[in-house]
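Try this one yourself first.
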């Protein structure tokens, strides 16, 4: 055997921290990359949800406007038609004038 390649019994092997440091660094990079990726996905899904909510609010506003027109027409018809008057009385339909409610004093 070659004397240079043999370990001498009096000399203990020395270790350096390259591999543990490399493994810890790679692990941290992977964890931070995963966190960024999850953050991006979360932000994208939140934006999609917000867009859906905006569309739903717009649809609800349109339905409310159509329903208000229908109810106002029913109340107007109730002035002359008995069947419409019974419907208005049965469901307790009342129309608040927006102009009257803004000028009324609040308690």
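Now uncover the answer:
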């Amino acid at each position: 055997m070659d004397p240079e390649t043999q370990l001498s019994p009096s000399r203990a092997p020395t270790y350096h921290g390259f591999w543990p440091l490399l493994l810890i660094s790679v692990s941290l990079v992977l964890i931070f990359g995963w966190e960024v990726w999850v953050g991006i996905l979360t932000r994208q899904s939140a934006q999609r949800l917000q867009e859906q909510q905006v569309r739903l609010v717009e649809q609800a506003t349109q339905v409310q406007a159509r329903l208000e027109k229908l109810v106002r027409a029913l109340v107007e018809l109730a002035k002359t038609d008995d069947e419409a008057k019974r419907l208005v009385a049965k469901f307790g339909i009342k129309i608040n004038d927006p102009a009257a409610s803004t000028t009324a004093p609040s308690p």
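Discussion: The chain has a mean pLDDT of 86. The chain has one domain: 20-94.
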